[in-house]
């Protein structure tokens, strides 16, 4: 479901990374512009190898939505040296696992294998960085897989459909208004030439960086990077023009009708993201506000709206302070039986008004901070999580070496900061309200096309 709480991912993840591995990363930039970041972690004889491309759905144009994600699928369809599907087979044969993911802001590919197989992983990734085949027949098959993925994960999932429609209304100029997977009509009209053009424009070493975390020696990794990635030629990148979202001038509302058991309410306020690690205050305060509202079982929403007032069967919040584009601060929930969406909206508003008027207590703030750290610490004690931390920060323009400062800024958030942020950003003029109006469930499920999404 798209509305899972993202409050402190990746930001609060940074709180515990130093506990997982104390080594500082090493960095080396190749002559072709590819940056290689290595973090040595000797706790297990494995290595995580990730290639991040600074391109995502934010870089798409109208009529071509979904092409970034489609190209991610096509990256597994072979090169002159590696046949279709062989990439995955070689990783599995090496005793590893691999996958990829496309985001609004980036596209990334990873393998986690025994450390002795790192060289093979680098050779495979370097090969497909510039030598992808893009066969029309493979494309024709894979576009059907992507369309079925859209049906399964969005069209047939009412909360996901609501989230998608809400973004389309909340954002007007920002490319964030379009779904990462793309609009169905764009997918239906996409061609292999569209994928090839995307690949040629963006999949170049000077638009990528490699992150390696594990039981490795950084000098050896740099040597391998020079050997396999070094020969790839850079290319001039397309000019990225700013697409700033205009100021919202009043509340926006929408209703989505879809088969579902329960209504869902989404309230999304325009919110800032971190642009200056040192000078920004509000994004850190909004992170903490989200934790106070929905960071643990005793937080305000589950305690007040679910347990005490019983106006909701579930109630939560979500916010991501790190992104290339604008962000939203979400409130989300479903009303209890016998209660209405209007009553739930009123309850959400009342809780926000209480914070705007009375603020939050010091004990409440401390408890939220402690709960957030406890919830994330074990998730991040892994090589993969460390690689994700580095990659995600770099993707949105925050140097990964700023992670300790981000932690300090978050820990310095005061109750006054939280109250001020709530007053400044949780305002009707920047609010979009989306309601899922549940329709009768179908008696028989939609037949599947037979195309199974790869991931």
From TrEMBL:
<feature type="domain" description="Peptidase M16 N-terminal">
    <location>
        <begin position="36"/>
        <end position="181"/>
    </location>
</feature>
<feature type="signal peptide">
    <location>
        <begin position="1"/>
        <end position="23"/>
    </location>
</feature>
<dbReference type="GO" id="GO:0006508">
    <property type="term" value="P:proteolysis"/>
</dbReference>
<dbReference type="InterPro" id="IPR007863">
    <property type="entry name" value="Peptidase_M16_C"/>
</dbReference>
<dbReference type="GO" id="GO:0004222">
    <property type="term" value="F:metalloendopeptidase activity"/>
</dbReference>
<dbReference type="GO" id="GO:0046872">
    <property type="term" value="F:metal ion binding"/>
</dbReference>
<feature type="region of interest" description="Disordered">
    <location>
        <begin position="436"/>
        <end position="455"/>
    </location>
</feature>
<dbReference type="Pfam" id="PF05193">
    <property type="entry name" value="Peptidase_M16_C"/>
</dbReference>
<dbReference type="InterPro" id="IPR050361">
    <property type="entry name" value="MPP/UQCRC_Complex"/>
</dbReference>
<protein>
    <submittedName>
        <fullName>Zinc protease</fullName>
        <ecNumber>3.4.24.-</ecNumber>
    </submittedName>
</protein>
<keyword id="KW-0732">Signal</keyword>
<comment type="similarity">
    <text>Belongs to the peptidase M16 family.</text>
</comment>
<keyword id="KW-0378">Hydrolase</keyword>
<dbReference type="InterPro" id="IPR011765">
    <property type="entry name" value="Pept_M16_N"/>
</dbReference>
<dbReference type="InterPro" id="IPR001431">
    <property type="entry name" value="Pept_M16_Zn_BS"/>
</dbReference>
<feature type="domain" description="Peptidase M16 C-terminal">
    <location>
        <begin position="190"/>
        <end position="372"/>
    </location>
</feature>
<dbReference type="InterPro" id="IPR011249">
    <property type="entry name" value="Metalloenz_LuxS/M16"/>
</dbReference>
<keyword id="KW-0645">Protease</keyword>
<dbReference type="Pfam" id="PF00675">
    <property type="entry name" value="Peptidase_M16"/>
</dbReference>
């Amino acid at each position: 479901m798209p509305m899972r709480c993202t409050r402190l991912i990746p930001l609060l993840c940074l709180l515990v990374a130093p506990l997982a591995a104390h080594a500082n990363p090493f960095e080396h930039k190749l002559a072709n512009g590819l940056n290689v970041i290595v973090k040595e972690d000797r706790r297990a004889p494995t290595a995580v190898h990730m290639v991040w491309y600074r391109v995502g759905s934010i870089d798409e144009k109208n009529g071509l939505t979904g092409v970034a994600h489609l190209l991610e699928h096509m990256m597994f369809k072979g090169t002159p040296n590696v046949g279709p599907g062989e990439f995955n087979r070689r990783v599995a044969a090496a005793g590893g696992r691999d996958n990829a993911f496309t985001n609004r802001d980036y596209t990334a590919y990873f393998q986690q294998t025994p450390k002795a197989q790192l060289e093979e992983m680098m050779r495979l990734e370097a090969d497909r960085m510039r030598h992808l085949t893009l066969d029309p027949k493979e494309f024709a098959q894979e576009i059907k897989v992507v369309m079925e993925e859209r049906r399964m994960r969005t069209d047939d999932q009412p909360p996901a459909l609501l989230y998608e429609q809400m973004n389309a209304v909340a954002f007007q100029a920002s490319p964030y208004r379009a779904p990462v997977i793309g609009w169905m009509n764009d997918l239906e009209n996409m061609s292999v030439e569209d994928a090839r053009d995307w690949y040629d424009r963006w999949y170049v070493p000077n638009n990528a960086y490699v992150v390696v975390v594990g039981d490795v020696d950084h000098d050896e990794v740099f040597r391998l990077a020079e050997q396999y990635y070094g020969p790839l030629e850079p290319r001039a990148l397309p000019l990225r023009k700013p697409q700033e979202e205009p100021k919202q001038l009043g509340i926006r509302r929408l209703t989505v009708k879809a088969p579902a058991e329960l209504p869902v309410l989404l309230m999304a306020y325009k919110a800032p993201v971190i642009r200056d690690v040192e000078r920004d205050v509000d994004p850190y305060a909004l992170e903490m506000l989200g934790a106070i509202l929905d960071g643990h079982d005793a937080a305000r929403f589950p305690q007040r709206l679910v347990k005490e007032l019983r106006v909701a069967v579930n109630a939560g919040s979500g916010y991501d302070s790190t992104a290339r584009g604008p962000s939203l601060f979400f409130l989300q929930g479903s009303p209890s039986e016998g209660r209405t969406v209007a009553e739930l909206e009123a309850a959400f508003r009342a809780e926000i008004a209480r914070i705007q008027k009375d603020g939050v207590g010091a004990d409440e703030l401390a408890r939220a901070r402690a709960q957030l750290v406890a919830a994330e610490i074990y998730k991040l004690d892994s090589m993969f999580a460390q690689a994700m931390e580095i990659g995600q920060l770099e993707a949105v323009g925050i140097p990964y070496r700023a992670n300790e400062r981000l932690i300090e800024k978050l820990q310095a958030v005061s109750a006054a900061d939280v109250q001020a942020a709530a007053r400044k950003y949780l305002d009707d003029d920047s609010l979009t309200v989306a309601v899922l109006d549940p329709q009768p469930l179908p008696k028989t499920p939609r037949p599947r096309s037979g195309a199974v999404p790869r991931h």
